[in-house]
């Protein structure tokens, strides 16, 4: 497996991603030290809000589980009247800071974003956020978290 060069070089144009996600990518593109990256990710993880009880309660439907995520992440996509989606997440592992940070980024940048922009997100953004030296297991789980969001957007686009 070949990892993308760091900093992340996007395979799609800037206009293809939700603007808030692009802001995050731009911010992380300027971070050069591992310590600064970790601090920023911890700050973002602190913004994580678990799925509200009005959407889901435990035990969660296994169909919502992100396969391959060691932090036991779950994803919900709820249709908005304007044709976009609201995304909700939960991470059951209290130590799952990376999954919480990625969930917060996806919630803040993809909820309410045009479906074609959400569908264009490439899992390689994980390397921009977490660095090229991320472990294979963590990288896979975070990529699958992104893939779950992208899948929901593509599913809605196909049904239109």
Structural summary, described in words:
The chain is mostly helical. The chain has one domain (about 15-160): Alpha-Beta Complex (Sufe protein. Chain: A), CATH 3.90.1010. Helices cover about 45% and strands about 10% of the residues. The protein has helices spanning about 20-30, 35-45, 95-110, 115-120, 125-130, 135-160, and strands at about 75-80, 85-90. The protein has a two-stranded antiparallel ribbon. A hairpin with a 5-residue loop joins strand 1 and strand 2. Helix 1 packs across helix 3 (about 95-110), helix 2 (about 35-45) packs across helix 3 and helix 3 runs parallel beside helix 6 (about 135-160). The longest helix is centred in the C-terminal third of the chain and has 24 residues, at about 135-160.
Question: How would the blueprint of this fold be written?
Answer:
Layout: H1 19-29, H2 34-45, E1 73-79, E2 85-91, H3 97-110, H4 115-119, H5 125-130, H6 136-159
Name the descriptors.
45% helix, 160 residues, mainly alpha, disordered N terminus, Sufe protein. Chain: A, globular
């Amino acid at each position: 497996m070949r990892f993308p060069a760091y900093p992340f070089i996007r395979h799609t144009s800037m206009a293809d991603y939700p603007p808030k996600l692009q802001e995050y990518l731009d911010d992380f593109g300027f971070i050069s030290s591992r310590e600064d990256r970790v601090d920023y990710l911890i700050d973002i993880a602190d913004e994580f809000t678990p799925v509200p009880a009005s959407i889901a309660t435990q035990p969660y439907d296994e169909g919502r589980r992100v396969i391959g995520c060691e932090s036991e992440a779950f994803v919900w996509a709820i249709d908005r009247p304007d044709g976009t989606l609201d995304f909700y997440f939960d991470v059951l592992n209290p130590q799952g800071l990376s999954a919480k940070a990625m969930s917060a980024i996806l919630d803040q940048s993809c909820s309410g974003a045009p479906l074609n922009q959400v569908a264009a997100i490439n899992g390689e953004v994980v390397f921009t956020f977490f660095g090229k030296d991320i472990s294979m297991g963590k990288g896979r789980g975070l990529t699958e978290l992104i893939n779950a969001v992208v899948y929901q957007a593509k599913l809605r686009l196909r049904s239109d």
